[in-house]
Amino acid sequence: MPEIANSMLTRPLPLVVLASGRGNTFAALLAAQQSGRLAIEIRAVLADKRMAPVLGLAEDAGIATVALRPRDYPDRVAFDLALFAKVAGFAPDLIVLAGYMRVIDASVVAQWRGRMINLHPSLLPKYPGLHTHELALAAGDREHGASIHFVTEELDAGPLIAQVRLPVRAGETAESLATRLRPLEQELLVGVVKLIAAGRLLYTAAGPALDGRTLDTALQYDPATGFGGL
Length: 230
What we know:
Number of strands: 11
Radius of gyration: 17 Å
Shape: globular
Number of helices: 6
Structural class: alpha/beta
Strand order of the largest sheet: 3-2-1-4-5-6-7-11
Strand content: 15-25%
Order of helices and strands: EHEHEHEHEHEEHEEEE
CATH architecture: 3-Layer(aba) Sandwich
CATH superfamily: Formyl transferase, N-terminal domain
């Protein structure tokens, strides 16, 4: 599977979204597309739950949806192969995992290397996997946040692209922390997809590259200034 071309894109970036839940992050991408803030074409939303609310949001916007149930397949590999066969049918240049709650088989991930990004609610490499807010609070962290990375075969360990941070308040709960982080996650994702859609942010063998230069560290997103004027 080819990587995103190393050139300025002259058409909206075709992408698909994989999600499992309410669809708040998908809604942020859709709003940015509809307002003209993002030069993207969301071609489909795919879910692993037929009743996932995100599917209704997509259908209301006239976007194709696909829902497959893992229990209808003999194992994870069979499910992932079926799901990503559907993905391939929409010919995306980018796959966005936005609240997709399943681990994808390594053999399937390898076919899409450099063309799939994930939004994860922690400051990776801290707290891969689930329950990130609870883990941050249990550790007494003074700072929490979210990360976007290219997806590789190892869970939540692909090359980091960008992060957004927020301070942990006294008396914080996992629910309050998640609520405060959610809009920042959405802004972070829109900012990263904007760079990809412009052809400025690419996946390379050396790691993510911005404007032709490999990133030594993750980009830091500031809600007031974005990526510092990029």
